[in-house]
Amino acid sequence: MSDVKIRNMEEFAALSGISRPTVSKYFHDPESVRPSTRARIEAALEQYDYRPNIFAINQNRKQTKTVGILVPYLADPVFAEFARNIEQRCVDMGYRPTIFSAHGEQETENEILENLRAQKPAGALLAPLGRASDVAAVKAFCKDVPTVLFDSILPDVGMAFIGSDNPQFTRLIVDYLCRTGEPPCFFEMKTPTNPNARKRRQSYLDAMQALGQEPQVFSVDGADWHFEEIGRQGGHQVLRSGEMKTNTVLCSNDRLAIGFLTACYELGLKVGRTEDCAIRVAGQDDHPFSRYTCPPLTTIAQDYDSVSREAVATLFRAIEGEDFPYSIKLFEGKLVMRESA
Amino acid sequence: MSDVKIRNMEEFAALSGISRPTVSKYFHDPESVRPSTRARIEAALEQYDYRPNIFAINQNRKQTKTVGILVPYLADPVFAEFARNIEQRCVDMGYRPTIFSAHGEQETENEILENLRAQKPAGALLAPLGRASDVAAVKAFCKDVPTVLFDSILPDVGMAFIGSDNPQFTRLIVDYLCRTGEPPCFFEMKTPTNPNARKRRQSYLDAMQALGQEPQVFSVDGADWHFEEIGRQGGHQVLRSGEMKTNTVLCSNDRLAIGFLTACYELGLKVGRTEDCAIRVAGQDDHPFSRYTCPPLTTIAQDYDSVSREAVATLFRAIEGEDFPYSIKLFEGKLVMRESA
DNA sequence: ATATAATTTTTACGCGCGATAAATTCTTAC
DNA sequence: GTAAGAATTTATCGCGCGTAAAAATTATAT
């Protein structure tokens, strides 16, 4: 490895003994040049450590190799998991993904979209804030950048939506809970930002009706992303109110459930499905930590892998020029039975 | 808002009635032009929605407005919290931060560093993998990009290191535990990737000696980033071995502690500091979820805010041309007393 | 050996903006 | 009203690379 500093492709081409346009072609696609010239370029590459200037490339290509990934709240392990999964898949496709988080705020989401658009990405994978999103802004973004939405749907925005079949989630776990004990009441935030929450509530009501059970919904205050705290405080409220007609609680998501479990602990209520327990608690999502709560949380596992894979696949079909109508694809969840219910 | 599409600064300048160099100057610093011309530009800006091409800008400026943020594992809420905090501060400084995660792998860390370098960022904030880092690669990166390391130190790499005073953490909690009950044994991973873990162990040994207590260390297997699972399995192992000479366990970090708590639960051991409890468990870090474990985890709170603030401030002093010698700044932790110990 | 196809080289332009120097216009103070 | 100072305009390069067309070279098939 020589330590001669190479300023640009011109210099590198001269040193490798190949013309600049051919070198340029090589960097665009190594397979597109004759094996013998490829070998010469790669030999020079090992000797001189040159990399094309990424800004000059992006300025001149209509399409960059950048992919934007935007999630509503990165400190939420569910989205950290999605981001990690999707990022890896983009890298494998030879693209350069960048992760952004809206931190739960519309203004931030819009700013990120603006900045992202300026980078002319090849595409974007977007889990919008949901109810808190500026739909017009997201739509405008999608007009410029091929975008696939995931996790949280904004109807007819983007090229496709990939997510979880929330009604199925809730049906499945309501069914299980009814089969194994008292029918559950439903614990949720009054004003959830995520549209999935509304679907889960509705699906709870439907499932209970289908089973001939009387539903009971507790909607607690709290509008930000501190779900555990909302679950804990709301849990205290509900548990102390004495209004619960059942010993079983289905939480709208695992993070609320984690907080609810804390409330149970603080009130001295033993949680679980054995005889000596006072209450059963279940969640939805299979949050990465739900295996480690005490007791471990019974929940419905999101199919992170399938959702991520399909979202990325769909985006790249679009990037590669395939034309297809707007579509929605939902994946089913699996019941994860643990001790809490 | 007119829907005339503007191709470049030339066109925009013409439409706003100002010359291109002045417009360019405006975008570089709005304060640098006369108020009357600023008003005219901003009026045109509202009418025509033009944004300078970011690639062209970065190609021509020696220094970009990009800042790279790299953490070892973004799905770990501790690093998600750091990333969020630091990102916000960079935005406030008028820069465009980008978050990357090494996902616990050296190869990924190196690739990110390579890509980042190609982007000629104004600076970088780096929490390296630690023991698993390719020190030479990181050093090479720091030679090209002003870099401040945080959380995990690589001695003499970067312009400065900002982190937590791990010995103080451990001293503080060992002290507390000894004062309020039996002296703790220490629970850790045998081969931690993070150098802080070694400091904590050593500091545990020192603190115990200073207090005239006999130390006991349990080092369990497991080398990846699934700390909770390592804590759980290791917990089972330790608890069943019968080798614990005390009823108090200090875990090297909160994530291990969370897994250890699960092990306790699974073995039917009641955790807490009341008389009816079999064991006390404490962690270190004040992981965002440690408030919600059952029982809530007693721990030492990292000063996320101070570390982030100081790291960003140090970086920007360097970016703005200030010259200073390599320095290390450590922040103290605060004892967070909860029910687990 | 020759014709044909496939690559590579040469040459030249363009992308959108930063930067600079000289010429011009505007501001401010007297 | 005038002169000095500040801001703006005009004109012109340069950044590093994509891209296109024509000319030259090489590889492949007959």
The overall pLDDT of chain A, averaged over residues, is 91
Major β-sheet of chain A, in short?
Answer: 6 strands, parallel
Helix percent band of chain A: 40-55%
What does the overall shape of chain A look like? elongated
Per CATH, the class of the largest domain in chain A reads Alpha Beta
**What is the H level of CATH, i.e. the homologous superfamily of the largest domain in chain A?**
Response regulator
Q: Helix and strand succession of chain A? A: HHHHEHEHEHEEHEHEHEHEEHEE
| Largest interface (CB < 8 Å) | A-B, 43 and 43 residues
Radius of gyration of chain A (CA) equals 25 Å
How much beta of chain A, percentage-wise? 15-25%
The span between the termini of chain A is 62 Å
Oligomer: homodimer
Uncertain parts of chain A = none
With helices defined by DSSP (H or I, 4 residues minimum), what is the helix count of chain A? 12
The total strand number of chain A stands at 12
Helix- and strand-based class of chain A? alpha/beta
Could you say how many structural domains of chain A there are in total?
Answer: 3
Instruction: Please state how the strands of the largest beta sheet of chain A are arranged side by side.
Output: 2-1-3-4-5-11
Gross CATH architecture of the largest domain in chain A: 3-Layer(aba) Sandwich
Outline of the structure:
Two copies of one chain form a homodimer. The first copy, chain A, is of the alpha/beta class and 341 residues long. Chain A contains twelve helices and twelve strands.
